[in-house]
Design a protein that fits this description.
protein serine/threonine kinase activity, ATP-binding, nucleotide-binding, Prot_kinase_dom, CMGC protein kinase, Transferase(Phosphotransferase), domain 1, alpha+beta
């Protein structure tokens, strides 16, 4: 909008005031303002009577009421459009919940979901337990495609070969019963049952262990895979409880034609068509590899050639079938049969043109003298890709796919709306949908039911630039594989659309704190909270810190110096919507991870300049959500800009964690203030311009806000006081001391001057100390404090702490003091969520 048009629009909205000039920088999006009435006191959710009230200071109350009397007030909130258009309209980029804007996602306590659980399982008494839980999950595909699943859970001695013999018998009994059920129908005579998928994986209380693909369920194979995976898990996570899961999926195929088919080739075509019933997310048909392998054996090819002997390539079907398999052209031959091509012409492509499964016919190469060869090849090429769907690998690369290539990725239907796909997020850039991958085309996980998130970018204007910017960040983060950063699996471009495949999260942090109650301030819960805060800070440190790259590093998105150089970056869009939660066990112990790096960037510095003046690379562009911008938003922004935004997230989560339901919603409302630069506009920053700065900029609007000319908003300082008062009532030192120290650290991150904020490295060191103290106190004390109106959570038994102190020769009364005198390597960490390389560096 032109400058004079903007001024006119503002003047019409507020006819009583002067015509201000918009200040440099991002302009908030205009929205209908809140009702012209003061917000309810803290502790009162909308429409509910509060149980905990904190009176406002008189000056703050009058200020909050005064700015709400402005008519047609427009508010910039955390979920509003970011400064750089276009931006996604939904915050749930990778969350499996339907997208929702922030105003509708802020709910009262009555609409909150059942509280999640923070549970610390008791460690195993021995590093090598005698028995372990085993879950056997068997799925059979019906002839109509409907799966039938059964599950069996029992305990077994995992080192005893006899246990695996019993397990084999359990599997064999169910497979034999399924076969008998099939042959009861005469139409199923000639049906053979085969294994479609098999995996053996170890699942721990906090970690997912190694897994193996099992192609045979004989007792010796099960024993080898299970013991190998269990030993690998115990090596990485000693004393952690675990269970063994064996997943088997069986399907069936007809290999003996009935009289109704008439011909063997017609039966093969019918079986191929039945296995191609599920198209991928682009509505392309494809034959999964496991079904294809059943239909491309030498015996099936021999039967087809015997039924229709070729005229030009000899009359020995067995010799021809063996040579086709030896040349690696069995899939190409079956594809020709599926298109009803004559056997002579199919053999001509294999023996005459030397085509095979890795060297397929190409379009536009019509130079063959054989009659009808070129025409038949054109027809074949339209359907040939269906037999050669790609394999999905966790390579972190970007691939250029041809127009007709097939990715074996299927949409997940939305059961609530009946739509063919389940959208996790949608915006002007494209959309994010929930997908699944055919198990025979990937080895990403041992769970065949695992789902993923597929993010799509259109290749138009700024959208393509957004994809390149995000992938440039992801490509480097993929090499780090930080446990608190969401890294992608792979990426590709096809038909003008850019795709990025991610693991699917349970939900994002905004949805979590809006829809779930706090678990309570027990020792285990406080340790969990500090562990997540520490993980996010460590993930941010891995982005901020200097990392050396060698000249041999390949980077497909940007051109890098061929000499050794250092790389460091920033996120610049940290907010609850961009922090995803992953639950290893549904409903238990969610893990926070940073995501959505579309606003971030990595910078390179030659190694020769590393000892020169270290000035952090600055950015003048704004692409994030304005609510969490620091006071330096109208100036060049550096890495401390991320520290401010992360502190905002910490503060909101602490309010949710420590105060009764309703306070977080109230905090959002109290933080809204009218902009001193544009009449009729409001924002919900954590800071405000000081009166001197606001007066200086109000006349001309051209004076940029200096970082020192700002201060925290009254709502922020009020909630610091409210939190400290609430924690002072806590009889447990975990909540009183550690959460109090956390508030001190957050306040340091809210330093108006960016240079005075702690670096990500210092932030990690401080949080590491708090986390270690919380974990130790949670282990040694049984006392548990409940949040008013919330659940109490879970804590460890005091007997565990007593036994531990007795074994180490320490009295339980001074065990905590002795602990803090030990070195980090001597501490017995009871919550080993992150690898040691990320905990102490």
């Amino acid at each position: 909008m032109p400058r004079d048009s903007l001024e006119g629009a503002v003047t019409r909205r507020s006819p009583t005031g002067p015509s201000p000039t918009a200040a440099p920088g991002p302009s908030p999006t205009r929205r209908p303002g809140p009702p012209n009435k003061p917000p309810a006191a803290p502790g009162r959710a909308r429409g509910d009577a509060g149980t905990h009230e904190a009176p406002l200071d008189a000056s703050e109350s009058s200020s909050a009421t005064r700015h709400q009397r402005v008519p047609s007030l427009s508010v910039q909130k955390a979920s509003d459009r970011s400064a750089e258009a276009p931006q996604p309209t939904s915050p749930d980029h990778l969350s499996p919940r339907p997208p929702a804007s922030r105003p509708s996602s802020i709910r009262s306590a009555r609409s909150r979901e059942r509280p999640f659980q923070i549970i610390e399982d008791d460690p195993l008494p021995r590093i090598l337990p005698e028995k372990s839980e085993c879950r056997l999950r068997i799925t059979f595909d019906g002839r109509d495609g409907t799966p039938k699943q059964s599950q069996l859970t029992f305990e077994k001695t995992w080192t005893d070969p006899a246990s695996y013999g019993e397990l084999y018998q359990q599997i064999k009994q169910r497979v034999d019963a399924h076969k008998r059920e099939l042959v009861r129908d005469r139409q199923n005579v000639g049906i053979e049952v085969y294994q479609r998928h098999g995996s053996c994986l170890v699942v721990g209380g906090r970690h997912e262990g190694p897994y193996s693909v099992i192609e045979d369920y004989e007792a010796e194979v099960l024993e080898q895979k299970a013991i190998q995976n269990i030993c690998g898990f115990i090596y990485r996570h000693p004393f952690e409880p675990f269970r063994l899961e064996i997943c088997l999926h069986f399907s069936s195929i007809r290999k003996t034609p009935q009289q109704s088919y008439g011909r063997y080739g017609r039966m093969v075509i019918a079986e191929i068509n039945s296995k191609m019933s599920d198209n991928n997310f682009m509505d392309q048909e494809f034959l999964p590899r496991v079904h294809r392998d059943q239909l491309t054996s030498a015996q099936i090819i021999e039967n087809i050639l015997r039924e229709e002997p070729p005229r030009k390539f000899g009359s020995d079907p067995r010799r021809l079938s063996q040579e086709i398999v030896q040349r690696g052209a069995s899939t190409l031959f079956i594809a020709c049969v599926h298109r009803s091509m004559e056997n002579d012409l199919a053999l001509h492509l294999i023996f005459g043109h030397n085509y095979n499964d890795t060297k397929l016919p190409l379009p536009g190469k019509g130079t063959c003298r054989e009659p009808s060869c070129d025409y038949e090849v054109k027809i074949l090429l339209k359907h040939l890709r269906a037999f050669f769907a790609r394999t999905i690998e966790r390579d972190g690369k970007r691939h250029e796919l041809e127009y007709d290539e097939v990715m074996p990725i299927m949409n997940i239907a939305n059961e609530e709306t009946g739509a063919k796909e389940t959208k996790l997020g949608e915006g002007s850039y494209g959309s994010v949908t929930a997908v699944t991958i055919d198990p025979s085309h990937h080895y990403l996980t041992g769970d065949p039911d695992r789902t993923f998130a597929l993010k799509k970018f259109t290749d138009q204007g700024n959208f393509a630039a957004s994809f390149r910017r995000e992938f440039s960040m992801l490509e480097r983060l993929f090499r780090k594989q930080h446990p608190h950063i969401v890294t992608h699996i792979t990426s590709w471009t096809q038909r003008g659309i850019h795709y990025i495949l991610y693991p699917q999260a349970t939900r994002n942090l905004r949805t979590h704190i809006d829809k779930h109650q706090s678990p309570g301030r027990s020792g285990v819960n406080v340790a969990w909270l500090l562990r997540q805060f520490n993980g996010l800070a460590d993930g941010l440190r891995s982005i901020h810190e200097m990392t050396e790259e060698t000249s041999g590093y390949e980077h497909s998105s940007t051109t890098v110096d061929q000499t050794n150089h250092f790389v460091y970056g920033y996120h610049h869009d940290i907010k609850p919507e961009n922090i995803l939660l992953f639950e290893h066990v549904p409903g238990r112990n969610p893990v926070f991870k940073l995501s959505d790096f579309g606003a971030g960037k990595f910078h390179t510095m030659p190694k020769s300049q590393i000892h020169e003046t270290m000035i952090s690379q600055q950015s003048s562009q704004l692409r994030g959500t304005m609510s969490y911008y620091g006071p330096e938003l109208r100036r060049s922004k550096t890495r401390p800009f991320d520290i401010w935004a992360l502190a905002c997230v910490y503060f909101e989560v602490t309010i949710w964690f420590a105060l009764p339901p309703g306070h977080l919603e109230q905090f959002h409302l109290l933080r809204e203030e009218q902009s001193p630069r544009t009449l009729g506009w409001a924002d919900d920053y954590y800071w405000r311009e000081s009166p001197v700065a606001g007066a200086g900029a109000g006349a001309g609007g051209a004076t940029a806000t200096a970082a020192d000319d700002a201060q925290l908003r009254p709502a922020v300082t009020q909630y610091f006081t409210l939190l400290r008062d609430e924690l002072a009532k806590d009889p447990d030192e975990i909540g009183r001391l550690l959460l109090g120290s956390l508030l001190d650290l957050i306040l340091e991150c809210f330093a108006i001057n960016p240079k005075e904020r702690p670096t990500a490295d210092k932030l990690c060191n401080r949080l590491d100390e708090l986390q270690n103290q919380a974990e130790t106190l949670a282990k040694n004390y049984e006392r548990e404090v409940s949040t008013p109106g919330g659940s109490s959570g879970h804590s460890l038994q005091s007997s565990d702490a007593s036994d531990h102190d007795h074994d180490n020769g320490n009295a339980s009364s001074n065990g905590g003091d002795d602990f803090f005198a030990r070195s980090p390597s001597q501490r017995n960490l009871t919550f080993p969520e992150d690898p040691p390389s990320h905990r102490h560096r």
